[in-house]
């Protein structure tokens, strides 16, 4: 089968063997938010020369405004419940390269246990690739990113999820706030000392994030850090506040899933707090789609 | 004398009588960040037909990158200490309308009692207009805005200050984040129910601001509020988190200084928490400049 991890700003294709092993991988240029409805043509061009008849997709491609809106499956849900929420779509008219193929899309997940509720789309598929490895019992997962997801897995089911807008706020504050004005253009080298100072700041009682953020401004005014260290200070402050809330009353360990850079940064922050860490690669999505296809009886 | 309240994006002139009462008021169009160094010409054009020889200015006009950089005075400082930090500038060459006048600029204040430190510029002058009214003892002031200031006044001295980036974050999230995408253009009517739901959300233990913010997104996805109520929900969440941190272990009352709209919003949020409120008008800056001029022996 072919597994398609199609996020808002990324597109990755995996050709899998009959046991879910990755035979080949490719990247496309057009994320689900950027391809302006030309989903069939973009996908056809990317995988046209692979002859596998089954295609499973996950991520923002299945969101409202994506190719097909696949309704959220509610927490708690195991692989069977998640697979039961998959929807099939017919794309034979959109691209000749997709004719004679069967396309499926994985649902996102919603947690309505809190008044505000919470959602994810894409991360549930990465987690589906990990649950067998986790086994029985309760496990805490963190998938850091633009919208970091904290997920509780219990006995193979996704039980609870919580989002933190850490990555989006970091980007916003750098690009558009008074805090970014003192920072050099471009992503500067990571500064461990400044990152750690940001982490420490987030553990000070009483200040709160809205106050602590202004400390990036005063750090510049008072020359506490070099301008090129300010982004790391801001990053440590935001990651620290994310952890402060997510770890309340919780001793770990945490399973980290994501890009190597982000996983390293979060692992460091967690270890600073004495919390144990397991690292997992981002590419779990392909395994997750294979597991879901099998749970649905397709692979 | 003439009092000039010259902030980053606003310019207000007050003509005062010999006891500090306001005889006349005017607004200019060019804030200190917008006037590109033409400070003398802008001021000369605004007050040229007022013949008072003494001009006292406060706000971002005295910041680095303003007309004259007036160094921060350290906390704690009473009116005398603040007045001693005022700097005189000679603008006779910049505008004929300013020749034969004496111009002074009020300093900002810095608090170095915490590792990150904190600063304000402009608010110290509003507070200088209020301290006589407050009298002896300890008082807590809140000046809500782009950067809200929480200030402790003890026996007539400004003892401690703390900034919260509430207003800037509200504007950023509305204009540039995923949360703003679901909101109608322009500032919608205030929705008390949604604002109160945001306040309540900020008092829930465990979530943290980075998590709670994503609730504005899910509120749209789940149809919890009408799109035109989302900005009020976001506002309540941010103000609530500001108060949650600022009021830790504190029972009130709070002296609120600011625009009527913001003061009403904060008063409502404080009263929801059972905290008493005193309201003061924004125009305190003119009184503050008069008091400081008198403390310096100028008026």
Automatic annotation (TrEMBL), chains A, B:
Domain of life: Bacteria
Protein name: MFS transporter
Species, as recorded: Pseudoxanthomonas daejeonensis
């Amino acid at each position: 089968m072919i597994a398609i991890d199609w996020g808002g700003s990324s597109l990755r294709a995996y050709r899998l063997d009959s046991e879910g092993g990755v035979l080949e991988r490719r990247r496309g240029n057009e994320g689900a938010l950027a391809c302006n409805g030309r989903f069939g043509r973009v996908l056809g061009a990317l995988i046209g020369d692979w002859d596998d008849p089954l295609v499973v997709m996950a991520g923002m491609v299945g969101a409202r405004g994506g190719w097909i809106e696949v309704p959220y499956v509610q927490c708690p849900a195991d692989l069977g419940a998640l697979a039961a929420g998959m929807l099939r779509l017919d794309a034979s008219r959109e691209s000749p390269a997709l004719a004679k193929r069967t396309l499926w899309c994985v649902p996102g997940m919603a947690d309505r246990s809190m008044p505000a509720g919470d959602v994810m789309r894409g991360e549930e598929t990465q987690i589906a690739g990990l649950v067998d490895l986790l086994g029985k019992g309760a496990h805490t997962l963190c998938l850091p990113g633009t919208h970091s997801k904290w997920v509780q897995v219990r006995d193979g089911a996704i039980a609870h999820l919580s989002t933190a807008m850490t990555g989006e706020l970091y980007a916003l504050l750098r690009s558009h706030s008074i805090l970014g004005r003192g920072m050099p253009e471009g992503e500067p080298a990571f500064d461990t000392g400044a990152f750690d100072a940001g982490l420490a700041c987030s553990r000070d009682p009483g200040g709160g994030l809205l106050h602590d953020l202004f400390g990036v401004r005063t750090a510049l005014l008072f020359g506490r850090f070099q301008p090129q260290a300010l982004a790391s200070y801001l990053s440590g402050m935001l990651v620290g506040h994310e952890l402060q809330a997510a770890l309340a009353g919780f001793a770990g360990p945490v399973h980290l899933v994501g890009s190597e850079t982000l996983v390293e940064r979060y692992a460091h922050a967690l270890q600073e707090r004495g919390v144990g860490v397991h690292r997992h690669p981002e590419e779990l999505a392909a395994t997750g789609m294979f597991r879901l296809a099998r749970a649905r009886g397709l692979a």
